[in-house]
Amino acid sequence: xxxxxxxxxxxxxxxxxxxxxxxxxxxxxxxxxxxxxxxxxxxxxxxxxxxxxxxxxxxxxxxxxxxxxxxxxxxxxxxxxxxxxxxxxxxxxxxxxxxxxxxxxxxxxxxxxxxxxxxxxxxxxxxxxxxxxxxxxxxxxxxxxxxxxxxxxxxxxxxxxxxxxxxxxxxxxxxxxxxxxxxxxxxxxxxxxxxxxxxxxxxxxxxxxxxxxxxxxxxxxxxxxxxxxxxxxxxxxxxxxxxxxxxxxxxxxxxxxxxxxxxxxxxxxxxxxxxxxxxxxxxxxxxxxxxxxxxxxxxxxxxxxxxxxxxxxxxxxxxxxxxxxxxxxxxxxxxxxxxxxxxxxxxxxxxxxxxxxxxxxxxxxxxxxxxxxxxxxxxxxxxxxxxxxxxxxxxxxxxxxxxxxxxxxxxxxxxxxxxxxxxxxxxxxxxxxxxxxxxxxxxxxxxxxxxxxxxxxxxxxxxxxxxxxxxxxxxxxxxxxxxxxxxxxxxxxxxxxxxxxxxxxxxxxxxxxxxxxxxxxxxxxxxxxxxxxxxxxxxxxxxxxxxxxxxxxxxxxxxxxxxxxxxxxxxxxxxxxxxxxxxxxxxxxxxxxxxxxxxxxxxxxxxxxxxxxxxxxxxxxxxxxxxxx
Length: 629
What we know:
By secondary structure, this protein is α+β, with helices and mostly antiparallel strands. It has 5 domains: 1-98, 3-Layer(aba) Sandwich (Rossmann fold); 118-266, 2-Layer Sandwich (Beta-Lactamase), CATH 3.30.450; 293-396, PAS domain (Beta-Lactamase), CATH 3.30.450.20; 403-523, Beta-Lactamase (2-Layer Sandwich), CATH 3.30.450; 528-619, Helix Hairpins, CATH 1.10.287.
């Protein structure tokens, strides 16, 4: 586990409150209490779960209540754990990023609402800086307006002091503010204590206060920088992310708009009253859509809600009165604001769109997937009619089915054995990685160009189907383990063990599937074993011959010695012209020849034969002893 986490770029921690991902082993005996304790911990709702289960129906059923992000089995651990940890970490980071973006959007909506409703500008600006400091966990947020002189600034609000206002400062001590005024762009100093924009005096001051990073955002009013939103990070906060800078830039622009003139507040209130008057003119639409099961909202040209039917209000955990006059984003809080706005913008241009999935979060905290459709509404006040229905459960089932399909495909492709399926016309519909390695074709080639007949020697495919339909070899529709051959792309015949079955749908044959185990290595091993057995038999024969030859030589030497001795004595007593001398001489010479044969028999060390009469074989003494000479 530690090695896989390290390869995935993750670190294993002991405290669950420090974790982002958790791998729970549901195969461990008595794991239930530990899993419950983990899920009910303070960090439990924020954890991304992976579950290790046993590869059987009971194992997969055990994860129903946990709803993990991903599951795996012990069989997949060596190959899949690192990959799945990486994917889970990516999904967790995406979810965290979405959550942070949602928090930023919520704060931005709150600030926008405060800008529209508050009449106390001083309290409003302090509230803005205080909320930014709290949400970003920074040391201080300050609003600085430019004074009458080029080097003079006025602090109008600070997050850490509600009474601080109208404090004049010398901009010569704030080069980051001067840079923002000069360029009109944000200035971010991640390593403030060493940043080249600051002088030696400013660097020492920053280091003494423990400030790690500084961000300065322009407040543009009528095309000119009239103020700066200044933020300083200290303590645990080390830097500002790109997302946070984008968010702060938006806040700065919204603040600049609110500060443009004192008449803005009155203008906003007037606009709200106008929106309410528009909503009253749409009462006929409300009556018409009151009993529609889908949510229906009527929007103005700026995506403000003029009317929301009861089904839509219930779906979004709000009321029609609460939604009226608010921006569509404010009541739906979409995770991807761009998708929703593109849908509404298309409708306002006269283009009808339908079936667009948008993930939203209701005020009650429910996360829903809504299938939305938008169309232009030809009316002097209304611009768009938006309908939506809750497809959360359907999309969840689709995701589960897709994940199951992906899992089964990976499982089939990871099999070493070849798995091949074909329809009743012989067209190949499944050809896994094992089949590619065994037959030499890619899956695409097999499915596009081949039939199952081409994967067997002539006539074998028909015989296999006949065996499948026969009750003799495993029952109807099933074929027990048999040895068969497949044809490789090169023409080589590949010996295999195979099992097969016919898949039925409604009692009718739908397709057949076979599983093939490559026996080439096994056949080669069997051949080697046969050769070894043959050599062993020859060795045993040689050992028997050598032992027999030694015994025979030993037993024959004694009588031959006696025969030769007596024959030699007789030759000495006889003269060459005696009648008996010649027979005795023949006996002596033949005994010597027999002694030479016995000597060769005693030197036999291997089994060598030669033809004798017909097909008969006898021992070849010369070859059997030649290596000794």
